[in-house]
Structures are given as structure tokens and as C-alpha cells.
Design goal:
This protein is mainly α. It has 20 helices and two strands. α1 runs parallel beside α4. The relative contact order is 0.11.
């Protein structure tokens, strides 16, 4: 119980926050007299009761500190428990989603994946649409806090490279969380409000602007329409969303430094330069392809390529057009972009740019050693030497990511999915991207037609990818559960 007490107490607090968040759809339902009112009231009461029970039953005097083992348990346990209770409004709603569908929708929201099993979004109750967006917005905050305050101490996949110098507690992670959470939440909320205002001025109504602002900053991609952003047919809205998707995929720590210290570090950060430069390169390649092969005007080709490339590489998952109709070359690009992701310390998923930087630096060093066997060459990141420990962590993460992708794709094929659907489904769930490829889960489809077994597999995959693999897999080791 020494191991579980602080973990259960903190999960209880998170459930109280989730219960409070359910009040917003309740307020909206009261105003429009929607039938979903009972579903949200029941969900809020159940969630609040469990949260209060856990908080009071496992309360203790003093501040909470977590050991490394407890941090692993909290990170995975919190996501699973919050996701389970977050699925209650879907279960109790007039849509009557099955347990597999409700859990899938909730997990996709909290992990900011954006894959959906809901159809007829154009006529869906607004309270449910708002709840989906709130799940992604709350998940985005949790992801950033985890990336900058928890994972570096847990030494996950090379994340120790981003350990904050201000922390002198090597085995205690809660002080870092409490220091960063408030600042991150304030900045995150500010970006969300600005995005909503700009979208509203660009022509969206207030409800759609609020929902899309929350899911854009979270790089989640839940929309209020079946056609996603393509519903609006507005170049201005697409360019606005491109800007804020890129902001969501940029390290929030750099914005915090700008806010607190008035120091502009974006241009000097190599990860940001690689991310922005690589994104621009893929946009130009795909725009030129559309212009030359599909006889589209270059302005329209550039806009369509920019929106969809940014949406996939930031793992947001919005769709402005069915890019599956662009041909095999375009689909190949989108498939590989599914693995890239944005920057560390942002809301985006997948492998992340910094790991590719480390691997390319390692490859360059290996070439130099072949040509100059007696030379001494070091792996660098952002003009600084990085330790062998970080290099090994990055290598191990990428290898494990590849193995998990292959195993999950194989498991999906066992459930009856074809090769394209299984491969793209595994890639998009592990990278928390959203749409896959093919007629079923591609940009013009959704995940509602998949068998329940496949939905459970993909739900676990979304959690696995969101928590950087090892955070979840370490719990499967027998040695983790042995006494201290």
C-alpha cells in the first residue's frame, strides 16, 4: 500500500478535475434543453464520487512526492482511469455507444489521437461534441506536463536530454510537475483563446471556433463535422489552423521562456529548425506534385499540401480534402510522415524530431569513423555533446517503436483487417495521428466499421504511443512489482 497510496490519491484528484469538466456540457445542455443532460449529470456524479473517495481515503499530511516507480505507475494508471471515466458520457448518451466504441473515443480524445468511431457529427448533440474537444484539450495539457516534467526524470527514450537544470531532486518528480503545470496551463489556455477568437473572426460560429481551437492547440484533430475542416471550404480558416497546429507542435518550454524571460529562442533551437524546415520541404514537394500531375493551380495545390502535410506531421489529423485520391506517391509521403511527429515538449506524438536528429548525427559519426578509424568523433545535438546513455536510449526507443508497429499491425490483420488498413491503423494509433489510409479508416472514413477486437487493440496502441512505449511496457515486467 505504500506504493499505491500517493498514486491513488493523485488519480482521485484527476477524477475530480474530470468531474468538474463535465459541468461545461451540462451547462450547455441546460440552456438548449438537450437530451444528453442526464448522461452528463450521471457521469459527473459517478466520476466525482470515485474521485472524492480516492482523495479522502488515501489522504495524508504534507506534500506529495513520488519515487520513480510510483511515477511510472501514476502515468499509466492515470491515463487508463481517466479514460475509463471519460467514456461514461458516450455510454450514457442517446448515441448509446458500445463499451468498445466509448472507450476508443475517450482514449482517442485524451491521447489527442483524433481517430473517431462517431458518425453523423453534423447532427450530433453539441454537448457530446464539446466533450470530445474538452477531452483533447485536457489531454494536451497532460501531455506537455508529462513531456517536460516527468519523462526526463524517468529516462524514457532519450528524454533525459531535456531534463530541467533547475531541479535538484533526482528521485522525486512531483516538485517539477507542480512548478511547471500552472505556467503551462496558463500559456496553453492563452493560445486556445487567441485561436478561438481568430477562427470566429474568420467566419466560424462561436461553438465551432471554440471546439476547433481546443483540438488544434492539442493537435488532436476532433472536428464538429464529418468532413472535418473541409466542411468550411475556407482558405483563410485553413491557413489559421496551419499556424496554430505548428504552434501546438512546437516546444512549449520555448514559449514559456519567451513569456517569462522575454528571450526569443525559437530560431536558435535546432529541433525547431529541423521541424519547420522539414515540414516546408514536404509541403513544396507535394504541392509541386499536385500542380504537375493533377493539374491543380499552384495556389490551391500549395494550400492543400500545406494543410494536410502540417496536419499529419503535427499528428493533429484534420482533413481538408481526401488526399487518398492524390495517388500512390502522396499516400506514401503521408504514411511516412505518420512516424515523424513534431517537437519534444509539445502536444504532438509519434517518434519526434529530436530522435531523428540524434540518429542522423550518430550515422554521420559512424561514416567519419569508417574514413578515419583513429579519429575521435562525438554525437551532438543542438551543438552540444550528448552522452552514450542518451544515444542508447534513442536507439532503443526507435527499435522498440518499429517492433511495436509491426506486432500491432500483425494483430490487426488477425482480426480480419486488410494489409493497408492494418499497417496504417497501427502507424496512426501508435503515432497518435488520427486518420489512416484506405477506404475504411482513410481521410474520408472513420473507425466505426472495425471489429471490436481491433478497436480494443488500437485503444491500447494509442495509450502505448502517447506514453512513449516504455512507460507502459515497464509495468509488464515482474521485477517492477517486486518489493522495494
Amino acid at each position: 500500500m505504500v506504493l499505491y497510496t500517493p498514486v491513488l490519491r493523485l488519480i482521485g484528484r484527476l477524477l475530480l478535475v474530470l468531474s468538474g469538466a463535465m459541468i461545461l456540457p451540462i451547462i450547455g445542455d441546460i440552456q438548449i434543453k438537450n437530451l444528453e443532460l442526464r448522461a452528463f449529470i450521471a457521469s459527473s456524479i459517478i466520476t466525482g464520487c470515485f474521485g472524492m473517495t480516492a482523495t479522502l481515503a488515501y489522504s495524508s499530511p504534507g506534500s506529495i512526492t513520488l519515487s520513480t516507480r510510483q511515477a511510472f505507475l501514476l502515468t499509466t494508471g492515470a491515463w487508463l482511469v481517466v479514460c475509463s471515466f471519460g467514456s461514461l458520457p458516450f455510454l450514457f448518451s442517446s448515441r448509446h455507444l458500445s463499451p468498445a466504441d466509448a472507450f476508443f473515443e475517450s482514449m482517442s480524445g485524451l491521447t489527442t489521437t483524433g481517430s473517431t468511431v462517431m458518425t453523423d457529427l453534423d447532427t450530433a448533440p453539441r454537448s457530446l461534441l464539446l466533450w470530445r474537444s474538452l477531452l483533447q484539450w485536457l489531454g494536451g495539457i497532460g501531455i506537455i506536463v508529462m513531456a517536460v516534467a516527468v519523462l526526463p526524470d524517468l529516462r524514457i527514450g532519450g528524454m533525459q536530454l531535456f531534463r530541467m537544470e533547475s531541479s535538484d531532486k533526482k528521485d522525486k518528480v512531483m516538485p517539477r510537475v507542480s512548478q511547471m503545470a500552472g505556467t503551462i496551463t496558463a500559456l496553453y489556455a492563452l493560445f486556445s483563446v487567441v485561436c478561438a477568437l481568430v477562427l470566429w473572426m474568420a467566419g466560424m460560429d462561436g461553438f465551432d471556433a471554440i471546439n476547433h481551437a481546443m483540438t488544434t492547440i492539442a493537435t488532436g484533430g476532433y472536428s464538429t463535422f464529418d468532413k472535418s475542416v473541409g466542411h468550411f471550404q475556407s482558405p483563410l480558416i485553413e491557413w489559421i489552423l496551419i499556424l496554430f497546429m505548428m504552434i501546438g507542435a512546437t516546444p512549449f518550454v520555448l514559449f514559456i521562456v519567451l513569456w517569462q524571460q522575454k528571450e526569443w529562442r525559437l530560431r536558435g533551437d535546432s529541433q525547431v529548425r529541423w521541424f519547420y524546415g522539414g515540414t516546408a520541404a514536404f509541403v513544396l514537394i507535394l504541392a509541386t506534385w499536385l500542380w504537375t500531375v493533377h493539374d491543380i493551380s499552384y495556389n490551391n495545390a500549395l494550400r492543400s499540401a500545406a494543410f494536410n502535410v502540417v496536419s499529419v506531421i503535427t499528428t493533429c489529423g484534420y482533413v481538408s480534402t481526401d488526399y487518398a485520391a492524390w495517388g500512390g506517391f502522396a499516400q506514401t509521403i503521408f504514411f511516412w510522415l505518420t512516424f515523424v511527429g513534431g517537437c519534444t515538449g509539445s502536444t504532438s506524438g509519434a517518434i519526434k524530431v529530436f530522435r531523428f536528429q540524434v540518429l542522423f548525427s550518430l550515422a554521420a559519426v559512424q561514416f567519419k569513423r569508417l574514413l578515419h578509424p583513429a579519429g575521435v568523433f562525438l554525437v551532438h545535438f543542438d551543438k552540444e555533446k550528448i552522452s552514450e546513455d542518451v544515444v542508447r536510449s534513442v536507439q532503443g526507443f526507435v527499435v522498440l517503436y518499429t517492433v511495436c508497429f509491426a506486432l500491432i499491425a500483425g494483430a490487426l490483420m488477425v482480426t480480419g483487417l486488410n494489409l493497408v488498413t492494418a499497417l496504417s491503423g497501427s502507424a496512426t494509433a501508435l503515432g497518435n495521428v488520427g486518420p489512416g489510409l484506405g477506404p475504411t479508416i482513410g481521410p474520408s472514413g472513420n473507425f466505426s466499421l472495425l471489429p471490436d477486437t481491433a478497436k480494443w487493440i488500437l485503444s491500447f496502441t494509442m495509450l502505448l504511443g502517447r506514453l512513449e512505449l516504455l512507460t507502459v511496457l515497464v509495468l509488464l515486467r515482474r521485477s517492477f512489482w517486486q518489493p522495494f
